[in-house]
Amino acid sequence: MKPPRIALDRFPDVVIHAGESAVKRHSQYAAGKAGDIDAARDLVSVFVNGTCIGRLSELLGGRLVELVPVHALESEGVNEIPAALGSELSRRLGLPVNQSVLQANSVGHTGASGFARLAHQAQFVGQISPGACYLLVDDFVGQGGTLANLIGFISSQGGQVLGATVLTGKP
């Protein structure tokens, strides 16, 4: 089943907190990616920065927004980095976290080629409130496929995605 997608020219801004090599070399990265929530919290605490929090605050413009962390099953376990980043952003921005949206399939995108990412796309399930605004939260953005599919899912349910933020990625 092909997931819903939005037009490329409607893809929202993505705020990237830190450089890819620094995040991936950090001693807690692999453990957080493999399901250790404490390691993920430690990693996030090092790389979330005030400049990006300010950019997110401007992007959201004072609107009531729900944070939607990507809950994804990786080959090593459930990636806890998006949940830890969502929790930290909730604390700093005073926004609720939507815990109901989940990735419904395992796609194995970590280290995958562009073709593999297109062939095995993320699909999502969960509760979206029509008319509500959302900010997506993930650990990494490469080609933007996972975020595009999550935006498509939320939009197809009547929600509005204002932007996304990731701990690291490719600018």
Residue share in helix: 25-40%
- Reading the helices and strands in chain order gives EHHHHEEEHEHEEHE
Query: If you compute it from the alpha carbons, what radius of gyration comes out, rounded to the nearest whole angstrom?
Result: 15 Å
Q: How far do the termini sit from each other? A: 29 Å
Going across the major beta sheet, what is the strand order? 1-8-7-2
Profile the largest sheet: 4 strands, parallel
Indicate the proportion of strand residues.
15-25%
* Classification by helices and strands: alpha/beta
The overall average pLDDT, rounded, is 89
Count of alpha and pi helical runs: 7
Tell me what the structure shows:
The protein is of the alpha/beta class and 171 residues long. It is built from 7 helices and 8 strands; from the N terminus they run E-H-H-H-H-E-E-E-H-E-H-E-E-H-E. Strands 1-8-7-2 form a 4-stranded parallel sheet, sandwiched between helices. Strands 3-4 form a two-stranded antiparallel ribbon. A hairpin with a 2-residue loop joins strand 3 (73-74) and strand 4. The chain starts with 13 loop residues before the first strand and ends with a strand.
